[in-house]
Design a protein that fits this description.
FAD/NAD(P)-binding domain, 33% helix, 21% strand, FAD/NAD-bd_sf, oxidoreductase, Phytoene desaturase, Carotenoid/retinoid_OxRdtase
């Protein structure tokens, strides 16, 4: 039995802790916040009209089989803890010309919807792309997503499968893949959006990210009744039932190591380190290698940060008739990416996009809003917080409120005007996410769009990395798979 310290009680940290405790280890989780869940955050607002509840992080659960396996591995059943609700549509896409396309988890039905919205040639194009996406997904699931990947050589294991290599198309971008397969610009726009699932610009993101829409549309999108934050509650409950000690309000200031091995963690205000045989870091890899266990050689490539998000939490009177998820696309998608990422090499700084894509989540769930009202989560892509050319100083006086006004004006221009129906609005910027979750710059996914993320095994013996900034990447299922990989590397007691 090893003494294991887990730094951070996000989904990756809690999932790892539960797996390790179930195999006999002594596990303690240290969380700087007063609550668990990390970026799977929640917010509640009491008003005279009633209480509004919001998920402030992920709003969609995909690959439910990953979570089913996690709970079974720890001796429980997922449906005993959360109530999964399948979504149809998974996402409603509203394009600049006013056409709509509802995605769903039935390929034949989705193809019919594409044909009805865009015509038969568009449906044929999508079917051809779908076959390629399936090959990429199968190769990724078999060889990458559930296995350690420590270097570019690890990815070379695919090379001998020529069919896989051709489908993955190394060197081609997601944008290039869309232009090759899809003639309709609206379908290309839909495909481009999946690059933002990894925090990337589709013009630079690898074509292999075509596996992302496949995973969503093949296995479905799900909502958890009461909000996705209930997943954090479920994981915490599993951990406590398995004997994990969870210390919230406890900040780890350093990972202690000597002789090439971890020794434990240093806690803020403590006179001596908390001893541990193994340390699992569920914090951003940049924070680990810059601050907790300085490792300059490991910082290479970690400065290419993903995009962040600008969020409005709205209490709205009345009913909007919106789908659970609705995406309103702009006229010029490239202008949005030019703004969010900037061109530092050309002296063009990142900035708020004037005409952004707007993603609105409205859960038809009486547990999260008063009768006769709706709780709206509104998200737009945003540059990270910072004062460099690749960031925006979201703390600058007046900027957040002015941009919130702009986002509401954009929504109104696209046919959804709620400005006269607001009970309240709460503004969350990348600076707030940076403060709340210690995510550098408030970025969502760590390194932007790369297939090769920091390895799960750290440079000191007994150090492991888990979570969205490490392999296999961001998003709830990927983070949960990273926990499976790490627990497998550590092994049973």
């Amino acid at each position: 039995m090893a003494r294991i310290a887990v730094v951070g009680a996000g989904v990756g940290g809690l999932a790892t802790a539960a797996r390790l405790a179930a195999t006999g280890h002594e596990v303690t989780v240290y969380e700087r916040s007063d609550t668990v869940g990390g970026k799977l955050g929640r917010y509640s607002r009491e008003t005279p009209d009633g209480t509004f509840h919001f998920d402030t992080g992920p709003s969609l659960l995909t690959l439910p089989q990953v979570f089913t396996e996690l709970f079974e591995a720890t001796g429980a059943k997922l449906d005993e803890y959360v109530d999964l609700v399948p979504l149809d549509p998974i996402v409603r896409h509203v394009f600049p010309d006013g056409t709509r396309l509802d995605s769903c988890a039935e390929p034949t039905i989705f193809a019919d919807r594409i044909e009805e919205a865009f015509g038969a040639p568009a449906a044929t194009d999508w079917a051809r792309l779908w076959r390629r996406a399936e090959r990429v997904w199968d190769a990724s699931w078999r060889d990458i997503l559930r296995s350690p990947v420590d270097s570019p050589l690890s990815l070379a294991r695919l090379a001998w499968r020529l069919g896989d290599l051709a489908a993955i198309a190394p060197g081609r971008t997601l944008r290039g893949l869309g232009r090759h397969h899809l003639r309709d610009p609206r379908l290309r726009m839909l495909l481009d959006r999946y690059a933002t699932y990894t925090g990337a610009d589709p013009r630079r993101a690898p074509a292999a990210l075509v596996a992302v829409p496949y995973a969503e549309l093949a296995f479905g999108g799900w909502y958890l009744r009461g909000g996705l934050g209930t997943l954090a509650d479920a994981l915490l409950s599993r951990c406590l039932d398995l004997g994990v000690v969870v210390q919230t309000g406890t900040t780890v200031t350093r990972i202690e190591a000597a002789g090439g091995r971890v020794q434990g963690v240093r806690l803020a205000g403590a006179t001596a380190p908390a001893r541990a045989d193994v340390v699992v870091a569920n914090v951003d890899a940049l924070t680990v290698y810059r601050d907790l266990l300085p490792s300059p050689s490991r910082l290479t490539g970690l400065t290419d940060r993903s995009l962040a998000g600008f969020v409005l939490l709205l209490g709205v009177r009345g009913s909007s008739g919106l789908a659970h998820h609705t995406v309103f696309f702009p006229d010029d998608y490239d202008a949005e990416f030019d703004a969010v990422f900037g061109h530092p090499g050309r002296g063009v700084p990142a900035r708020p996009a004037l005409d952004p894509t707007v993603f609105v989540t409205v859960a038809d769930d009486p547990q999260v809003r008063p009768d006769g009202h709706e709780s709206w989560f509104v998200l737009v892509n945003a540059a990270r917080h910072g004062r460099s050319m690749s960031g925006v100083d979201w703390r600058r006086a007046g900027l957040a409120e002015a941009y919130a006004d702009r986002v509401l004006d954009v929504l109104a221009a696209r046919g959804v005007d709620v400005r006269d129906r607001l009970v309240f609005r709460e503004v969350r910027t990348p600076a707030d996410l940076a403060s709340d979750t210690a995510a550098p710059g408030g970025v969502i996914y760590g390194t932007a769009g790369s297939l090769l993320r920091p390895a799960n095994r750290g440079p000191a013996h007994g150090l492991f990395l888990v979570g969205g900034s490490a392999h296999p990447g961001g998003g709830l299922p990927m983070v949960t798979l990273s926990a499976q990989i790490v627990a497998g590397q550590i092994g049973p007691a």
